[in-house]
Amino acid sequence: MVRTAAIDVREFVRFVLTGIAAAVGNITIVWLARSYLTFDTASITGIVGGLLISFVLSKLFAFGSNSLSGTGREAARFLAVYLLSSAVYWGVAVLTERLVRSQGGAAELAEIGGLLFGAGTMMLSSYIGHRFVTFRTYQRAAKPLVAAQ
């Protein structure tokens, strides 16, 4: 039996770099689209663009899923993990903000703390979701290698 870690450090670093690239792509798309669209519409365009960048880079770079045969299923699972992780982000951010404020913390500090803690939690939960559900690299890593004969 082969044991694998829940987190593959190299894969996680590639995932973080993918997230940074997607965020930069999102901001760039909004900035470019803002010349032609309202801010609201440009922001939605940026979200969609960032999500597409994130999926493609996650699939090919972070998790090394180079096969095209399962791309539709991976995209559906990717979106489900993204939505669930976004809900986790929101819940953690709001709970953290309320907890800090209930302890007498300043509103600005509570909000920033909530956003940062929520974003960190989202990053970890989405990585775990993509590793175990979307791209299933945990399963690939757990399969023992058979020696060539």
**Class derived from helix and strand content:** mainly alpha
Tally of DSSP β-strands: 0
What is the 3D form?
flat
Low-confidence stretches: none
Alpha plus pi helix count:
5
- Estimate nothing, just give the exact number of structural domains: 2
For the termini, the CA-CA separation is 20 Å
Written as H for each helix and E for each strand, in order along the chain, the element string is HHHHH
| Helix amount | over 70%
Mean pLDDT: 92
Overall radius of gyration: 18 Å
Description:
The protein has two domains: 9-62; 67-143. It has helices spanning 9-33, 39-62, 71-102, 107-134, 137-142. 77% of the residues lie in helices and 0% in strands. It contains five helices and no strands. By secondary structure, the chain is mostly helical.
Summarize the topology.
Layout: H1 9-33, H2 39-62, H3 71-102, H4 107-134, H5 137-142
Helix pairs in contact: 1-2, 3-4
In short:
Helices cover 77% and strands 0% of the residues. With 149 residues, it is mainly α.
Features:
single chain, 149 residues, mainly alpha, flat
